[in-house]
Amino acid sequence: MPITHSPRHSTHLVIFTDLDGTLLDHETYSFDPAQDALKEIERRGIPLVLCTSKTRAEVERYRRALNNHHPFIVENGGATFIPTGYFPFASPYQREVGSYHVIEYGMPYPRLVDMLREVRAESGARIAGFSDLSIEQVAALTRLPAEGARLAKVREYDEPFFVKGPPEELDRVKTLFRKRGCRCTRGGRFHHLTGPNDKGKAVSDLVRLFERAYGECRTVGIGDSQNDLPMLWAVDVPILVQRIDGKHDPTVRVPNLIRAQGIGPQGWRTAVLDLLVRQD
Ligand SMILES: [Mg+2]
């Protein structure tokens, strides 16, 4: 579906959002508390770009549930998927998958899995990644239903992992990953091993395409964790929602950060409705 222009505003809003623990409840993965804000965004034709550590297979399910037809960013900035014909101009991409043009930033998943195994052997640390786990084990850890866990395992650019042991063990592991040119970041439940990509680069590149299509844009980013930090740096209006314990992640610090009142989708709703009122 091509982008729509809203004649009501001189500057176009574009909203980038994390999913887990932000638009989706940390425990139930529901976006219900944010329904009225989502409806208002849709009514106004504001692009809502999902920007998550989830896989393409998972995001496609949420896009259907949200009736969302906008580009999306998967696996912590591993790749951006742009529906064919979405922008009224041609722009570079690396792959064509189904009805998407794919801009790739990430390291191929098999390489990440090899590195996890190498680092485990070298460090002797007790590390486990999604690649070591069965669908049932992923379901138990994430509290996703079996089908959701299956889609979460269809990974292309990001290996979620955890380390059993003291924090020094994690630090040692992270150093070894960094030596191999990889990055580690922290999401709501897991650490994530990726190539030299993050949500920020993918968001900045996509903002440039929106600006080419719309002219000047006012960009909003909403997240809850450390892995959202690069995205929040890349937008005009950074918003942080409360985590499950009712606190804002203290490691997420950017200038002019709006700390929304409310956990996950409740905070999301409040922040978005506030923003839209001020935009009028
Ligand atoms: Mg999150």
| Strand content range | 15-25%
Q: How many strands, what sense, and barrel or not for the largest sheet? A: 9 strands, mixed
How does the helix and strand content classify structurally?
A: alpha/beta
Q: In total, how many beta strands?
A: 13
Q: Please state the overall shape, judged from the principal axes of the Cα atoms.
A: globular
Count structural domains.
2
Task: Report what the structure shows.
It is a single chain. The chain is built from 9 helices and 13 strands. The chain has helices at residues 35-43, 56-66, 109-123, 135-142, 146-152, 167-179, 199-214, 229-234, 265-279, and strands spanning 12-17, 48-51, 72-74, 79-83, 95-97, 100-104, 126-129, 158-164, 183-186, 191-194, 217-223, 237-242, 258-263. The chain folds into 2 domains: 12-106 and 198-279, Rossmann fold (3-Layer(aba) Sandwich); 109-194, Putative mannosyl-3-phosphoglycerate phosphatase, domain 2 (Threonyl-tRNA Synthetase, Chain A, domain 2, 2-Layer Sandwich), CATH 3.30.980.20. Strands 5-6-4-3-2-1-11-12-13 form a 9-stranded mixed β-sheet, sandwiched between helices. Strands 7-8-10-9 form a 4-stranded antiparallel β-sheet, with helices on one face. The radius of gyration is 18 Å and the shape is globular. It is an alpha/beta fold and 280 residues long. It starts with 11 loop residues before the first strand and ends with a helix. A hairpin with a 2-residue loop joins β5 (95-97) and β6. The longest helix has 16 residues, at 199-214. The structure holds magnesium ion.
